[in-house]
């Protein structure tokens, strides 16, 4: 670090006088990149934040270009690591619509299978499912009304859910094999 920090106005003059050189240097390290302007701006911010480490009278050109080179290398490593495929907005919307339609179709099939499976349950199990998921009232009220313990109701719901899950999976597999 410098013994006496450089005055801000002297640093600004050096930075401004070297802008074309810094810009040309960054462009030479990133040929054809659309991000050069952003990188030059980031280099300027880094240089400004490190201005107290620059000693007046030393080689500003070498110091600023070395800083720029290291920042460009960091930027390029980050871009390689974070390589993203970017689509046009219309392509993204089309992909989203297709995914939504496919998801809705799959959900509709599962709901159809679930309704078929519920219709195969015994009447008392259907009543319990309707009470629990459509009427959404508490289990304790239903337990009292049915004359069973709350624990027995929970166990019955657990058993019914497993049976429904297996039934829906089986119907989905059958539908996939027949399609």
UniProtKB/TrEMBL annotation:
Keywords: Sigma factor, Transcription, Transcription regulation
Native organism: Oceaniferula marina
Record flagged with keyword Cytoplasm: no
The protein's name: Sigma-70 family RNA polymerase sigma factor
Pfam families reported for this sequence: Sigma70_r2 (PF04542)
GO terms, biological process: DNA-templated transcription initiation
GO molecular function: sigma factor activity
All residue ranges annotated as the RNA polymerase sigma-70 region domain in the record: 16-81
Gene3D superfamilies (UniProt xref): 1.10.1740.10, Winged helix-like DNA-binding domain superfamily/Winged helix DNA-binding domain
Family to which the UniProt record says this protein belongs: Belongs to the sigma-70 factor family. ECF subfamily.
Signal in keyword set: no
Alphabetized SUPFAM superfamilies for the sequence: Sigma2 domain of RNA polymerase sigma factors (SSF88946), Sigma3 and sigma4 domains of RNA polymerase sigma factors (SSF88659)
């Amino acid at each position: 670090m410098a013994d006496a920090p450089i005055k801000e106005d002297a640093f600004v003059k050096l930075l401004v006088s070297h802008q074309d050189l810094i810009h040309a240097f960054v462009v030479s390290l990133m040929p054809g990149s659309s991000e050069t302007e952003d990188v030059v701006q980031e280099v300027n911010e880094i240089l400004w934040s490190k201005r107290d480490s620059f000693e007046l009278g030393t080689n500003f050109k070498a110091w600023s270009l070395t800083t720029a080179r290291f920042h460009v290398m960091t930027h390029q490593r980050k871009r390689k690591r974070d390589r993203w495929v970017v689509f046009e907005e219309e392509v993204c919307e089309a992909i989203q619509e297709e995914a939504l339609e496919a998801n809705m179709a799959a959900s509709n099939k599962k709901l159809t299978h679930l309704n078929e499976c519920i219709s195969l349950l015994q009447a008392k199990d259907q009543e319990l499912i309707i009470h629990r998921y459509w009427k959404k009232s508490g289990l304790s009220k239903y337990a009292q009304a049915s004359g069973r313990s709350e624990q027995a109701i929970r166990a019955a719901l657990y058993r019914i859910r497993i049976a429904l899950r297996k039934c829906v999976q089986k119907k989905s597999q059958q539908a996939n094999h027949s399609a």
